[in-house]
Amino acid sequence: MLLPCGRRRYLLFLATIVISLFFLLLFAHKILSFHMLKRSEMIVIIGNTNDRQKIAIAKSNTNPKDSELSHGDTTSSSTSVTSPTFSTVSPTSLKSLITGRPGPTNVPIVVCGDRNNLVDVKDIFESKKVPRVELFITILTAPHQFPRRMAIRDTWLSTARNYSVAYRFFTDGKELAPEVKKKLDEEQRKYKDLEFLPTKGGYWFSHRYLHALFWASKHYSFNFYLRMDDDYFLCLNNLYNDLQYRKKEKLLYWGNMCCWPSLVAMDEGFVILGTDLLQEIVRRNNSLCCHPMGGQMIAMWVNRLDHEGLEVTYFQDNERLKHYRNQLKGIDSNLCMDVIGIHESYPKEMHEYWNVTKDSWFSLKSNDFLKVKRKEYWEYCSRPKGWDWRALNPHWKHEPKPCWAPGVDWPELHSFKFHKGRE
Description:
Distance between the termini: 66 Å
Strand content: 15-25%
Structural class: alpha/beta
């Protein structure tokens, strides 16, 4: 049935108005997005040195010198981790400061301070006076998580002496109650595998990562660096066997990778970095930005290296790193043939996995383990590389700040004393 001519003209008029408003709003959104992106890039992407210091560092109410390394508070314990003193070196070792190639369109590159103020890492990573191992394992743990640490010591970690592996538990060393500090000191004296960080409870994961790395680099020389949570069961036999296939990988970034729009990164619960990648991060220590969430910050450090022309090697190992226990197909003596790590492994699960794998742990041969070939980045993720902290929900969305600026803090997280986990 045909509509009256007047009504048809009226509906056509309304349709024209709606379509015009749609395109007007779309155009306004594009303009606003472009403006916000440029504004963000002014804050975090380098310009010249003076402008960057005025913009990036002023946002934390510091002065340009505040991006230099501070030594932290080491008064909490005689075994506390301290940061090394770095000397500067010219940037001639960089392939290029700016490559000119396009990067992720909406992902900022965060730099806090003078990006040309590099540090000499030769004496840190190439010392001949420290033991050399293939792998160093950093296990971050909260002061009160003694049951988790004991479960690890009693299970998979008891095999570490059979490999070229060194390890330490790292925990907060500041603002501890006297009774807690006493128990931790006793634990440290007994097991000699616990170190105190110059950090306090709460979301200080970037600083914990850096201080633990500084300690490891001072006491050991290694090819691979694993940072893991204390609720991971590690099939060390499988992992150690697999390292032989990764020795030629340059700037290795290895873990359980997520691939979301503007959010591409390895989960911080289990991340392996090659020593050459660590060196490039520490080389930029004087201008590193930090974030309360460690996984996010590692991703942003990697973003910066990619932007500066260093080809970081992404290795997504989601098949062998089980982020959730319910991803396991079965629990039997062959568990470690196909798995490297299992998240959400609390003391009960830790002992369960150990009890079914310990008898076959050393009998497994190299060919028994599942082989995973590293692929090109685009075979893992069709989205551009990059991690944009602005894209997260409010609890995880926090602005990066200079790591070593005096008084650096995220007050909005003060109410969270520690991350309990899913236990």
